[in-house]
Amino acid sequence: MNFRYPLALVVALLMFASCDDDTATLGVDMMPTSDIIQKNYETYDVTTQSYAVGDSVLARTSMSYFGRFTDPETGTTIKSDFLAQFHCDEGFTIPDSVENDSCISFEAKLFIDDFVGDSLASFKLSVYELNKQLDPNADYYTNIDPENYYDKTEAPLATKWFTLSDRTITDSARWAKGYYSNIRVTLPNELGTQIIRDYRQHPEHFANTSAWTQSGNPCSKGLYFKLENGDGAMAYIYVVQLNMYFNYYDEELQTDTLGLSELAATEEVVEATRFENSNLQKLLDDTQATYLKSPAGIFTLATIPADQINVKDTINSAKLTFTRYNDTVESDFKLAIPKTILLVRLDDYLNGFFENYQLADSKTSYITTFNSTTNSYVFRNVSRLITTMASEKQNGTATENWNKVLLIPVSATYDSSNNIVKLNHDFSMSSTKLVGGDTDRISMEVIYSSFTK
After folding, report:
1. Long-range contacts of 49-52 (CB under 8 A, 24+ apart)
2. pLDDT tens across 179-228, in order?
């Protein structure tokens, strides 16, 4: 339903409140009657519904994720594990004096940046060697099938039960300077020995990352870190290292020394995280509200009534507000509220908004951040979006989705001038419930002006 208010009257009253009787109409009285601007305020219903992502969003992130976590608010569960290649620095070296050209310890370390859930929850991890190389120029999505990259009939290189808070080390070691929380997995020493001996015979295999990944060495195609068991936490892994330890003679120190050479999963190589969501259907079936859930969970789809708005007049502003419901469950492990969301046309998203490295242009796409004071997300002026939609409708270029937009949790990167330089899907664990659906329609507030005839 549309509501119309005499905004001109409101503006006039405000002017009287700040001016005396002699000056309140100064300027207006001097204009010809035919030129007086009439301003109007109207509201329009915006319909919304939850939009299923299907576990498949572009996995362009420098983080990897590992674990399984059940949201105490919604009862939905997300599981994640990942595949990773390893970067070889151009200056990679192994000393000439390695004893027997042998590795005495070979390990993978998964360094934890942050986590959600219970740090004492137990998990079982298996490590498999990839038998197919990940393409560094390809786009990978969060529904990637690891079975396309490893042989599940082969035994894993290693398995490990662990907790995110490593209880195998002392408290003094945990809080010591230089310690970083990590998951350490011991790999077979003979694999490290093969790498050392190949370096001795073919140093060109270690000239750079491209040479390394094609060298045929153990782990050169990458590793799959598979979640076998466990629930209660999700770890954010910011780097994975392959560490080879060996004994060698240090010429400078004139003594036998423990040496270390390492390869790391970094931004220079492919890290492909696989997500699996469970129990989302009950949220999608909820017609009394809509949801935002990341990563790779649920977006909100909104239908803008652009054909109802009078675009012949000047639209001064068009404001959209999406209010969230407060959580109803008390828990120490509640998920965060999505911080930044993108409003983008559905067709633009489906046609590769993220794949094409597009940014919010304040014409057909916008970003905003959560306002904790109003408990809402506010897009203050989407007037250019409305006029673009209306123009397409009028000139016959409108598609089936011409007036539909998505709300998507995103991660924004800014430069030193606070300009957005990169937008990616938000891969942090977050969730919120929004007012909308069939029960409560969202109102778009439009202020427009026209000259009186």
Report:
1. 49/287, 49/290, 49/300, 49/301, 49/436, 49/437, 50/283, 50/284, 50/286, 50/290, 50/291, 50/298, 50/299, 50/300, 50/301, 50/437, 51/298, 51/299, 51/300, 51/301, 51/406, 52/280, 52/284, 52/298
2. 789 999 999 999 999 999 999 999 999 999 999 999 999 999 999 999 99
Q: Which residue has the tokens 């000393």?
A: 95
Q: What is the structure's pLDDT at 173?
A: 72
> Which residues, at least 6 apart from 156, have a Cβ–Cβ distance to it below 8 Å?
126, 127, 128, 226
Q: Token pair of 368, please?
A: 């905003």
Residues 6+ apart with CB under 8 A from 42: 2, 3, 4, 5, 309, 445, 446, 448
Cα 179–184–185 angle (5° rounding)?
Answer: 165
Query: What is the DSSP code string of 53-65?
Result: -TT--B---S-EE
- State mean pLDDT over 300-329: 92
CA distance 195 to 209: 14
Which class for 392: exposed (0-12), middle (13-18), buried (19 or more C-beta within 10 A)? middle
Predicted TM-score of the model (pTM): 0.87
Would you say residue 12 has pLDDT above 90? Answer: no
Q: Quick one: average pLDDT of 100-108?
A: 97
The neighbouring-strand residues paired with 237 are 64, 112
Start-to-end CA span in the chain (Å): 27
Rounded Cα gap, residues 220 and 196, in angstroms: 13
Is there a contact between 362 and 387 (Cβ–Cβ < 8 Å)? no
Q: How many CB atoms lie within 10 A of CB 104?
A: 16
Cα separation, 337 vs 343, in Å, equals 17
Q: Quick one: pLDDT band at residue 151, thresholds 50, 70, 90?
A: very high
Q: Are 59 and 141 in contact (CB under 8 A)?
A: yes
pLDDT of residue 224: 98
Cβ(64)–Cβ(271) under 8 Å?
yes
**What does the domain layout of the chain look like in residue ranges?**
42-53+280-451, 77-277
| pLDDT for residue 78 is more than 50 | yes
Q: Is the pLDDT of residue 18 over 60?
A: no
